[in-house]
Amino acid sequence: MEEKLYLLYFAGILALGISAQWLAWRLRLPSILLLLGFGFLASFLPAGPDEIIGREVLFPIVSLSVAVILFEGGMSLRFAELREVGPALGGLVTIGALVVWGLASVAAYFLIGFSPAISAVVGAIVVVTGPTVVGPLLSHIRPSRKIGSLAKWEGIVIDPIGAVLAVLVFEFIMQTGEGATWATPMWSIAKTIGVGVVLGVLTAYMMIFALKSYWIPDFLHNAFILAVLLSVFAISNYIQSESGLLTVTVLGLLMANQKHIPVRHIFEFKENLRVLLISCLFIVLAARISLGTLLQVGWMGLLFVAVLIVIVRPASVFLSTIRSGLNWREKVFLCFMAPRGIVAAAVGSIFSFELAHHAENLDLGEVGGVAEGTLVVPVVFMVIVGTVMFYGLTAAPVARWLGLASPAPQGVLIAGADRWIRELAVVIKSAGFQVMLVDTNFRNITAARMQNLPAQCASILSDFVSEELNLGGIGRLLAATPNDEVNSLACMEFTHLFGRKEVYQLSPWDSGSGKRQSVSDHLRGRVTFGHGLDFYAIARRVTAGAQFKKTTITEEFTYHDFQQTHGESATLLFVIPETNRLRIVTADDSFVPKAGQTIIALIDARPEPIKPPAKSEDSKSGEPEESPAKSVASE
């Protein structure tokens, strides 16, 4: 019977984790909030993770999972971003980390009542932020490229720094009675950096060489890299405690920035694995904390969190970014981007176990009748919950208030800049939405810029567009080049950025050809406007005099009236609801615009009836003159 209960427990943890992720997506909330909430609910079960899994097994699993998460975070970093954020990043992860450590240690000593030794350990643990919470927040906020890159780099690089700092502080405390000096932590720092960097570089070179030489078959790529990643993490930690975090971060960074082998499929696999690991880890770690233990921390713990948010983070940002080139808006935004995540939870849990194990040697005291070492985990989890709630709910409004992000990116990245695309982009822009045109034809780009349209001369499939172009305010892709294969590839390229729901392409020229069509359905984005309305079909209509018109539907002028006025050939392209969001009409849409909504449609020109000229007495010919067709004006 016990085996069945254990089976239900593990399956239930996975189900709760994925349910929390889905609910967070639906409610537009940081997923970590719901994960922690579900975890606290799981703490009321008769048996907890320590009893079912066991501490000896749980903590190695947590450490290996954190290694995968940091490797995936390292793979999201690009050296090209350092040109803009390098000076500020250096200050944040050095001076800023020291400021957080010092001030947080002082706050833990005076507010919670920890001893100086435990205060220093707690201060080091809360230095970390983490890609598990910073990344999803940035994806939700979509800030400008510069500040977004800086926040991403800080969140990933600071994790191994904070973890190593906590280890060094703990080792120094353990050796205090044995005549330890400052030479001890200095040697540990040098050894940690050396082991982490050397092992990370050597492993990256070995993996790149093996994959480039085709020694590893395609179906083993992800499994091979995962096995190597976990092995080198364990070896690095065996040589020097906690150096594995630096090793896997360096490994991910080098794999992402090399140009010898494609790594997109590796990144996607690790990204999916990260979601799975985070979903389970947060619930399991939170389930170890009972409500009674949190209550033991009391109001002093909440005040400690408030000090971290109101005093410690702003002080670290403003002191570390002096002469960094950041303006005051960017500095204020960084003050609202310091949520703690899985690394803080994992490191706090591990050190709590170590502190309890060495309690007699350290001569630890009590806080409110509870052993100091026992309170480290609830304090860390209170910091995680408090910072995630505060930053998760305030970062997006603050970014919009500072003008560093749009509330919900509604702009359109358009692949192509031919004449009819430029005319369409002008109408979209006049409706209040951002557009960005990308084309390899410089004449098209020049013409677009003359029409005050943002445009870049580049291939939509190039790294420049996905990595260098500022896509702040852009929330979807419309692939509208004459080449259906390029359109499909563009949709595949930008799915990871916008999601499958927001990548669109024009109808292929051979749509409806079944298995013989040039591009399979599963390789395409969402087909826009209508089947058969491909690039050349639209171009021919525009050349013949068709125009893109913006019209507001009212109670007096319904969509039926619009169709009656402009005929069946009028093609609905975009709908703007009252919420001022841009909806692209797809080929399978049966949507009927309602009163209060604005539409953008392609309307064919209607020539005026030809009137015969007045005949004079001297006129010998009765043939009427042909008058040119009158173009349709924009409403």
Automatic annotation (TrEMBL):
It holds the Pfam family Na_H_Exchanger. Keywords: Antiport, Cell membrane, Ion transport, Membrane, Transmembrane, Transmembrane helix, Transport. It comes from Bremerella alba. Residues 605-623 have a biased composition (Basic and acidic residues). The gene is nhaP2. The lineage of its organism: Bacteria, Pseudomonadati, Planctomycetota, Planctomycetia, Pirellulales. Residues 604-635 are annotated as: Disordered. It is a multi-pass membrane protein. The chain crosses the membrane at residues 6-25, 32-49, 61-80, 92-112, 118-138, 150-174, 186-207, 219-239, 273-291, 297-320, 332-353, 373-393. One of its GO terms (molecular function) is antiporter activity. InterPro entries: Cation/H_exchanger_TM (IPR006153), Na+/solute_symporter_sf (IPR038770), NAD(P)-bd_dom_sf (IPR036291), RCK_N (IPR003148). This is K(+)/H(+) antiporter NhaP2.
